[in-house]
From TrEMBL:
Keywords: FAD, Flavoprotein, Oxidoreductase. The active site is at R327. InterPro entries: FAD-dep_OxRdtase_2_FAD-bd (IPR003953), FAD/NAD-bd_sf (IPR036188), Fum_R/Succ_DH_flav-like_C_sf (IPR037099), Fum_Rdtase/Succ_DH_flav-like_C (IPR015939), SdhA/FrdA/AprA (IPR030664), Succ_DH/fumarate_Rdtase_cat_sf (IPR027477). It comes from the Bacteria. Gene3D superfamilies: FAD/NAD(P)-binding domain, Fumarate reductase/succinate dehydrogenase flavoprotein-like, C-terminal domain, Succinate dehydrogenase/fumarate reductase flavoprotein, catalytic domain. One of its GO terms (molecular function) is steroid dehydrogenase activity, acting on the CH-CH group of donors. Its cofactor is FAD. The keyword Flavoprotein applies. This is Succinate dehydrogenase subunit A. It holds the Pfam family FAD_binding_2. Residues 491-602 form the Fumarate reductase/succinate dehydrogenase flavoprotein-like C-terminal domain. Residues 10-435 form the FAD-dependent oxidoreductase 2 FAD-binding domain. It comes from Jatrophihabitans endophyticus.
Length: 638
């Protein structure tokens, strides 16, 4: 066994997606030594897949836009379960974060008069998504990668050298963190333990502050738009460290994933297709979304095709198309059409842009979509409709954090931002609100970690050999079994359970069944055996990821069973209505005493600040709140 490699930093950022990179830039700018650790190659994080854009109320496409309108849309999208302080910070700060990216070298698409162009997206009252064609995430990551190199170059210059100096900001790529290290269970963070994917060699990072920016959980699902990295690692790490997860029952199914051919099932078809004029149709050729506008949204959405079509050119005087209802509504609508026998040949519905825009416009606005369908499905989207259906896309739940600093309050030194953190999006996220979330809260968590480190005055917790040995034993467990379970089989079974029993539509009996099956899977996972050594061994990597996926799946199922209402990304067939009483409760998951499973408890939401509450009319709030909660709100709102 090679000697275990060791490093020491002020701040560790785990994850090199949008949130992680922005956090690292912030912590470095605060004068600290920062390591960024990521499972994939630098520049290849899941964020690069983001297509449609980054929501920010810059008001370039419609001068009526403002942070208040963005805040309102976000709260409506989340059905008022959002952490309102996060939604406020997000709406206020997103425009600055987008501008700042241009100072780093990003170049967003432009309006005719040279301002940053903004496109329509579901649930956003005005065109609001800053974008680079349909490759916005790539530009975001490319730019921040470039910024990181420029910071390294500045460090080199400050020391009188040329080139890039990695001593104060370094990326450890293809390196997976398996456990956090703490002074004692639940105590302050001391560092993290992991392995290099290529060699299987172990590595220890000592640092008093860790920012978790590990992204989502899509790989728990059978059909997903997410990349291979999205195995819920950050949530698993946080739980084991004594932190808590919030509202894990809320999982977003994006309405439009590819449904065919099977090898690409789940790959995303950006909402930008509908934002730019594409419409959903069933096998009868009917634009069915008009039949699925829920009462709470009736005032904002057109009830006929003519008005919906006029809205694209004249949003001032027309109501928007229900093709752009929030994602949870559209996903359920598609689900119902397919169930009613009006689906497409491969079990989805049709998404038609071909009959709506000229060929060259489609090619200009949606180049990636054109190539994706041409290459993967041999479909020419400029000539024929796409077949699409729901795909597991995003988790609204996540690590419970303090809004202003990203601190995971129950573990000193632990911070989280991006998709791994919970609260911001309530029960359902609006498209485009993730990229802005990454920038706003990535920065805040980096600043928060830096402020925490400053309070330590250079006295950092130590890491003992016994602690390292304990992490090493856990990581090696699957390598020393004589015979046992196969990690791939367990993963498939897990995905099938979540697909069949804790999917888009949930029922108590089925979720209970899922929990029983998950218990058995957890037991079997103790006996996973991998063959071959530790040198690039995907079976071993999966065995370790499964620990996190099983924990996350259990959180989703337990919270889904407890929440007896339907809201956003959580639909209970047996409790189809939204409940004003349930709106007052967050569900909090923590590891149980014996550390064998997860406990869930309800915890009241903080009441919204009166000036924010006043941004809504009383009659709108009455759809979500109890009478007592809005007794002081006037009918007009602001
Ligand atoms: P990620 O980008 O997922 O990055 C996670 C990082 O953590 C990676 O670097 C990974 O390697 C690392 N990591 C994970 N586990 C470990 C570990 N154990 N050890 C070390 N490193 C680890 N949102 C929008 O706002 N607009 C859009 O247009 C949009 N389009 C999307 C399109 C697609 C196809 C998908 C799937 C999502 C889209 N989203 C969009 C959502 C958005 O892309 C994600 O929510 C967001 O990118 C998540 O960013 P993140 O920084 O939190 O994490």
């Amino acid at each position: 066994e090679a000697e275990i490699e060791r490093h020491s930093y002020d701040v560790l950022v785990i994850g090199a997606g949008g949130a992680g990179l922005r956090a690292a830039i912030a912590a470095h700018e605060a004068g600290l030594r920062v390591a960024i650790i990521c499972k994939s190659l630098f520049g290849k994080a899941h964020t690069v897949m983001a297509e449609g854009g980054c929501a920010a109320a810059m008001g370039n496409a419609n001068g009526n836009d403002s942070w208040q309108v963005h805040f309102r849309d976000t709260m409506r999208g989340g059905k008022f379960l959002n952490n309102w302080r996060m939604a406020e910070l997000h709406a206020k700060e997103a425009p600055d974060r987008v501008w700042e990216l241009e100072t780093y070298g990003a170049l967003f698409d432009r309006t005719k008069d040279g301002r940053i162009s903004q496109r329509n997206f579901g649930g956003h009252e005005y065109p609001r998504l800053a974008h680079v064609g349909d490759r916005t995430g790539l530009e975001l990551i490319r730019t921040m990668q470039q910024k990181i190199v420029s910071l390294q170059q500045a460090d080199a210059r400050a020391r009188g050298n040329t080139g890039a100096d990695e001593s104060r900001l370094r990326v450890f790529a293809e390196c997976t963190i398996t456990d956090l290290i703490q002074t004692h269970r639940g105590g302050p963070v001391a560092g993290a333990f992991g392995y290099y994917r290529e060699t299987g060699n172990f590595v220890v990072f000592r640092a008093p502050a860790v920012v978790l920016a590990t992204g989502g959980i899509g790989k728990v699902a059978k059909v997903t738009s997410n990349s291979w990295e999205c195995t819920g690692d950050g949530m698993g790490l946080a739980l084991r460290a004594g932190s808590t997860l919030l509202n894990m029952e809320f999982v977003q199914f994006h309405p439009t994933g590819m449904v065919w051919p099977p090898s690409v099932k789940g790959i995303l078809v950006t909402e930008g297709v509908r934002g730019d004029g594409g419409v959903l149709k069933n096998s009868d050729g009917t634009r069915f979304t008009f039949d699925y506008v829920p009462d709470v949204f009736r005032e904002q959405y057109a009830d006929n095709e003519a008005e919906a079509d006029r809205w694209y050119a004249d949003p001032e005087h027309n109501k928007r198309t229900p093709d752009l209802l929030p994602r949870d509504e559209v996903a359920r609508a598609i689900n119902s059409e397919v169930k009613a026998g009006r689906g497409s040949p491969h079990g989805g519905v049709f998404l038609d842009i071909a009959s709506r825009l000229p060929k060259d416009e489609i090619l200009r606005r949606l180049p990636s979509m054109y190539h994706q369908f041409k290459e993967l499905a041999d479909v020419d989207i400029t000539a024929e409709p796409m077949e699409v259906g729901p795909t597991c896309h995003y988790v609204m739940g996540g690590i419970e954090v303090e809004p202003d600093t990203g601190a995971a309050s129950r573990v000193p030194g632990l911070f989280a931002s991006g998709e791994v953190a919970g609260g911001m999006h309530g029960s359902n996220r609006l498209g485009g609100n993730s990229l802005s979330d990454l920038l706003v809260f990535g920065k805040r968590s980096g600043d928060g970690a830096a402020a925490y480190v400053a309070t330590l005055k250079g006295v950092y917790p130590a890491i003992t050999d016994a602690q390292i040995d304990a992490c090493r034993r856990i990581a090696l467990a699957p390598t020393d079994k004589q015979d046992g379970e196969n990690a791939y089989e367990l993963h498939e079974e897990l995905q099938q359970i979540m697909n069949d029993l804790v999917g888009i539509i949930r029922r108590a009996g089925e979720v209970q069944d899922a929990l029983e099956r998950l218990e058995k899977l957890k037991e079997r996972a103790q006996h996973i055996r991998i063959t071959g050594g530790r040198r690039f061994n995907p079976g071993w990597h999966l065995a370790l990821d499964l620990r996190n996926m099983l924990a996350v799946a259990e959180c989703v199922a337990r919270a889904a069973l407890l929440r007896e209402e339907s809201r956003g990304g959580h639909t209970r067939d047996d409790f189809p209505a939204m409940s004003a009483e349930w709106r007052q409760q967050n569900l909090i998951c923590a590891l149980n005493e014996a550390r064998t499973g997860v406990d869930v408890v309800a915890q009241p939401l903080a009441a919204m600040r009166p000036d924010l509450l006043a941004l809504f009319t009383r009659s709108e709030l009455a759809k979500y709140y109890t009478d007592a909660e809005i007794a002081d709100v006037s009918e007009e709102g602001v």
